[in-house]
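Memo to structure team: turn this sequence into structure tokens by end of day. - J.P.
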Amino acid sequence: MRRMATSESSAGATTISEEMRGEAESQGLLTLGVEEEYLLVDAVEPRAVEAVEEVFDLVPDDLRESVQHEFQRSQIETASPPQLELSGLYNALQRQRAGIASAAEAAGVRLVAVGAAPAIGPNTRVVDKPRYHRMRERFGDLAPGAGLCGMHVHVSIPDSETGVQILNHLRPWLPIFQAATANSPLAGGHDTGYSSWRSVMWERWPTVGPAPYLQSFEHYETLVADLEASGAMLDEGMLYWYARLAARYPTVEIRMGDVCPSLDDTVLLAALARALVSTLLNDVLDGKPAPDVPHPLLVAAHWRAAKDGLEGLNIDMATREPRPAWRLMRQLFDYVRPELDRHGDLEMATILMGRLRSHGTGAARQRAILSQQGTVADVVDWLARTTAGAAPR
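Reply from structure team:
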């Protein structure tokens, strides 16, 4: 039996209904859900503001179960209900984004889907909850600024032992997922030279990084217990591996990406995540061993993802050589195509993949605005519009 972590995150918001569970089991399909973290910024200036309580009070009643506090007072988080159909996920996330954006506007601020605060601004305080205060006391200034905002995709698994083997198979694929989510090139009012500055800042925490190669679920639990005993994390909720077993629900949680500005990109990556987990589940059931990719090579590939996004290079784990990241993204799409098709996601995923190829990652679009004599304020304006549902630029 999994232990219950004491994380503040809802990690999925709603348990799956018996009707959906039965449909998934009868058709051999996997459910998925998405968590998104957002930044709250001033209505006029691009700086982050401590406004989560004011926004929270104005959230529509029908969305309240899906909305959570995050670590700092300039952040807010949503979690979709589990879904079988990709259109259902899109609609649920769209309602959440629109509802929280409207609540933010009513509170005199803006909701922005961005990995890190783009503009210069004061450090914001942690949310007034005991766990967050304990984290601040133990880990000090590991999280200065206004907060780091990510996206987590949950995909259902049959059991924890199988889930651990899926984690092993996932390891080589996650750098390209990270590259596709890159959406934080700016910090302190300037271009950092990284497509995901959030990734660089996030890696300061002691448990952030690729999951190790795991021998079994017992090995997983032993590592969790050892990390807690070491003081490197308060509880299982602070296991910040790039993929892990969710503490509350029977899912694999892929969690190393920046939050995406466009809902199109979020839903595309959720579809690819489900198709990849389903593909790898077949490998596990067929007894195929996971490739034991050297940990230093994985770290290097994740660094390249943070540096280049999809607009540069990443590492082909089969050949261990640098390749254009978009070529590796295409390889991933082709690899999971049969499971995209089986889950009914192929048509929508193909359309969304084309859109991502056309307009680029969030980092690329932010830089495009700056290259057209735009300012950081212009970038934040675009992020706010896109988060609320405007068409991608």
